[in-house]
Design a protein that fits this description.
Blueprint (H helix, E strand, L loop, with lengths): L1 H28 L7 H6 L5 H9 L2 H8 L7 E6 L1 H5 L11 H9 L2 E2 L5 H5 L5 E6 L5 E9 L2 E5 L4 E3 L3 E5 L2 E6 L18 H7 L3 H4 L5 H31 L1
Parallel strand pairs: 1-8
Antiparallel strand pairs: 1-2, 3-4, 4-5, 5-6, 7-8
The protein binds 2-acetamido-2-deoxy-beta-D-glucopyranose (NAG) (3 copies).
The site of one 2-acetamido-2-deoxy-beta-D-glucopyranose (NAG) has 4 residues, from helix 2.
Protein name: Fasciclin-like arabinogalactan protein 6
Organism: Hibiscus syriacus
Membrane topology: Lipid-anchor; GPI-anchor
């Protein structure tokens, strides 16, 4: 009787053990394939602009590669296509390559933050974007009642639903594109040529009507020369780039 009890106990322990092991095996095999960063955005269908910027700047492959080894993880804020459509027309196209990279990296934090972490993060939180002087661009987060806002100083928006939230990667939706304050400070000397061009129309006033066609001719040929010089310059630059 006693031995029957013992053996049935042993048997049930054994069965529980077998059941536990077999129950554990499928979940271990479950994570189907590696974590696919762009796949998360791609399957959603409303991040085509952001995906294009990620690809153009190769930030997508950088993140994908670093996800394999990172201990800190990453947090990515993904502006929707609507967010890009709501920007001032031409704004994004006016950014040079360096600024495009900065803009994309400004949406990436080199650390995994759950939505709750963001609520209590100490501001400013460092992003992956840096200025020309190497200064790190930061973002400020403010939380209330489980809602978190992100602010760049010039743009503030709600951190919307998590598309993915599992260490090492968090991806959140944004309804606005974040731009660092630094983009809008200190206009570069690129603005200088416009006063020069506005001066030009005053020149014909002082010259006589007869000389005008000649002046127009001159400006026309010098325009062509500038065009030719520019073409040669670009060609040389391309050769330099290739060699
Ligand atoms: C990740 O997903 C994208 C888009 O769905 C796909 O094109 C790409 O091949 C995937 N990459 C990997 C490594 O599975
Ligand atoms: C988030 O920003 C919105 C405006 O964009 C504002 O109405 C709201 O109060 C902010 N919430 C927090 C928690 O700062
Ligand atoms: C973050 O907040 C601090 C303190 O209020 C402020 O000085 C800083 O400019 C803010 N930075 C951004 C990126 O909003």
């Amino acid at each position: 009787m006693a031995s029957a009890l013992v053996s049935s106990t042993v048997l049930s322990v054994f069965l529980v053990f077998v059941a536990t092991v077999s129950a554990q095996t499928p979940p271990a095999a479950a994570p189907s394939g590696p974590l696919n960063f762009t796949g998360i955005l791609d399957k959603n269908g409303q991040y085509t602009y952001f995906l294009r910027f990620l690809a153009d700047t190769q930030v997508d492959s950088q993140i994908q590669n670093q996800l394999k080894t990172t201990t800190e993880g990453f947090t990515v804020f993904a502006p929707t296509d609507n967010a890009f459509n709501n920007l001032k027309p031409g704004l994004v196209n006016s950014l040079d390559e360096q600024k495009k990279v900065q803009m994309v990296l400004y949406h990436v934090l080199p650390k995994y933050y759950s939505l709750n972490d963001l609520q209590f993060a100490s501001n400013p939180v460092r992003t992956q974007a840096t200025g020309q002087d190497g200064a790190i661009f930061g973002l400020n987060f403010t939380g209330q009642n489980n809602q978190v806002n992100v602010s760049s100083g010039v743009v503030e928006t709600l951190v919307n639903n998590a598309l993915y939230q599992k260490k090492p990667l968090a991806v959140y939706q944004l309804d606005k594109v974040l731009f660092p304050e630094e983009f809008f400070e200190a206009k570069s000397p690129a603005g200088a040529p416009s006063p020069a061009t506005t001066k030009k129309p005053s020149e014909p006033k002082s010259s006589s009507k007869a000389s005008e066609p000649a002046a127009a001719d001159n400006s026309g040929s010098s325009g062509r020369n500038i065009g030719l010089g520019l073409a040669i310059g670009i060609a040389l630059a391309c050769m330099g780039f290739l060699s």
